[in-house]
Amino acid sequence: MFCPKCKSEYRLGFTSCTDCNVDLVPKLPSEEAEFVKYQQVLATHNAADICFIKSILDGEKIDYFFKGELFNQLEPPVQPAILMVRQDQVDTTNDILKDLNLTFLISNPKIGYEENPET
Predict the structure, then answer these.
(1) What ranges make up the beta strands (E) of 1-119?
(2) pLDDT surpasses 90 at 45
(3) Residue 114: its pLDDT value, please?
(4) Where does residue 84 rank: exposed (0-12), middle (13-18), buried (19+ CB within 10 A)?
């Protein structure tokens, strides 16, 4: 049994959620995944910069990923890692990162990266 409000699971025999005071349901409805657009913010070949940026963005609860993050496993490293940030958080991310003295940022993040407008 599940609470439709807080999604807590209960053992058989319970009929209402003790926290929400709503009737339990035998199965939670499936949730449709929200489509989220991401935008590239910067590119780098420096693994230390990637780790530093991740720690900052994690602390600020920014949704991001590095496309091509494992570039350093290739010899020679051909393409940089591209920081992709949730589109509605790009301005916040730029404000956070603007004063950092990062080592090997690439001024044109589209180097080696062909953007696909479908994604």
Answers:
(1) 38-44, 64-67, 81-86, 105-106
(2) no
(3) 40
(4) buried
What is the number of domains present in the chain? 2
Do residues 104 and 48 lie in contact, with contact meaning Cβ atoms separated by under 8 Å? Answer: no
The pair of structure tokens assigned to 112 is 């080696």
Q: In whole angstroms, what is the distance from residue 109 CA to residue 97 CA?
A: 15
Q: What is the pLDDT of residues 66-78, one digit of tens each?
A: 998 876 666 665 7
CATH code of the domain in which 45 resides:
3.30.70.790
Same domain, 102 and 52: yes
* Overall pTM > 0.85: no
CA 30/CA 53 separation, integer angstroms: 34
